[in-house]
Write a structure and sequence with these properties.
63 residues; mainly alpha; 0% strand
Length: 63
């Protein structure tokens, strides 16, 4: 594996983890702002972002 490939995949992994963390935080804040008893945004937003991110990673690596 070349150094460029390693940096490319490390960047994708970092982007994935940061996006997931930010989405969980936004969902948590939205649930508290709306005073919901069930954390619907904390659960659904990360799942939606996971699908979108996996699709983007699939498209980037299939080239």
């Amino acid at each position: 594996m070349q150094n460029n490939d390693l940096l490319k995949y490390a960047g994708m992994a970092t982007q994935f983890l940061v996006t997931l963390a930010v989405t969980i935080f936004i969902g948590y804040k939205a649930d508290h702002l709306l005073k919901l008893s069930f954390p619907i945004f904390t659960i659904t937003l990360p799942i939606l972002i996971l699908f979108v991110t996996f699709w983007k990673i699939y498209k980037d690596t299939s080239k």
